[in-house]
Amino acid sequence: MSERRTSPRLIGPGRWWLVPVGFAVMLLPPFYLDAFWLQTGLFAMSAAIGAIGLNLLTGSTGQLSMGHAFFLAVGAYGYVYLASSPEDGMTGLGLPTPLAFLGAIVLAGVAGGAFSPIAGRLRGVYLGIASLALIFIGQHVLFNAESVTGGFNGRNVPPLEIFGFSFDDSPGVVVLNVPFGALERLWFLAVALLVPAAWIARGILRGRPGRAMNTIRDHEVAAAVMGVPVARYRAGVFVLSSMYAGAAGALLALAFRRTVPDYFGMFLALDYLAMIVIGGLGSVAGAVAGAVFVSVLPQLLTRFGDDLPMVAAPGSGGVSPAEAARILYGAAVVAVVLFLPRGLAGVWPMLRSAASRRRASRHLTPLEKEEQPA
């Protein structure tokens, strides 16, 4: 009789209380943190949503994508165009903002679907180079389609409004004696997007689609022999990853309040690759951890750079906070590849395993300890 195997649980049955406690902790910062930390957290949560999508594509399916920033731009500018009304030489559809937000996600998915035939034919570095072309195409469109994107100066982002509640700095919203402005309101929106995004991705990876994706990544020929529709999976994951990027881009636009073409360039694409490598390929928790590390580090260096050696203000001749951040997480990528193959997501299991071995060794006899491998 074959032994029934069950997938390991992320949280044991005796620790179910960690879920509501963790969710409650995520809702507390707007009541205690100032604007800098709230904005930093918004950037981190939007980056986490985009990194989860990229990890599904690159970490779990093995499709190297260098064009993730393009799909973030589609989400950000798609929301602005759909939600804005035509004025001052700018075009827009003037749709209700919730519909515009959903439309931006769909537009990013359509863009990913348009590129998916290419993604289905190419793999490895060839797919990376092909997707890299999306960055240059996107930059050309963003700078030259001025009636849609605003050109070099960008466009203002209409605030999201749901059932009359606006995610802006309009007065009158006070919760527990704390005035809620745009950042406080957007924090709850970001949590409401990040939690289901992570839950859906985790469900995909733990189910049959996730096993098929991992098989395609590890051995594409074997996956095809076992009956996995490789081309359909590769195209479908590319569309799903693009939709995650579209949601992240729309949320990022709401946090910035203005879209700027320069932001959605090559450096952003490299940042997202660094997120999933540092956090851990093929892991939802790793994508979130890597996104927090890569997005928060430049903000911290900017805020506290005056107190750190070798970090100077931009244009002063020293190493700027942005450059220092890229140097640090570049070193982090090298360290992860050499010493942490599973990324930051593998640190806790590694520590837990080491602690278990240490506890077990206490009950061994001296002879059994000598027989243990070094």
Automatic annotation (TrEMBL):
Keywords associated with the record: Cell membrane, Membrane, Transmembrane, Transmembrane helix
CDD domains: TM_PBP1_LivM_like
GO cellular component terms listed in the entry, alphabetical order: plasma membrane
Main location: membrane
Pfam families named in the record: BPD_transp_2 (PF02653)
Listed InterPro entries: ABC_transp_permease, LivM-like
GO molecular function, one term: branched-chain amino acid transmembrane transporter activity
Membrane topology designation: Multi-pass membrane protein
Transmembrane segments: 12-31, 37-57, 64-83, 95-118, 125-142, 187-205, 235-256, 268-294, 327-351
Protein name: Branched-chain amino acid ABC transporter permease
The species this protein was found in: Actinomadura livida
Lineage: Bacteria, Bacillati, Actinomycetota, Actinomycetes, Streptosporangiales
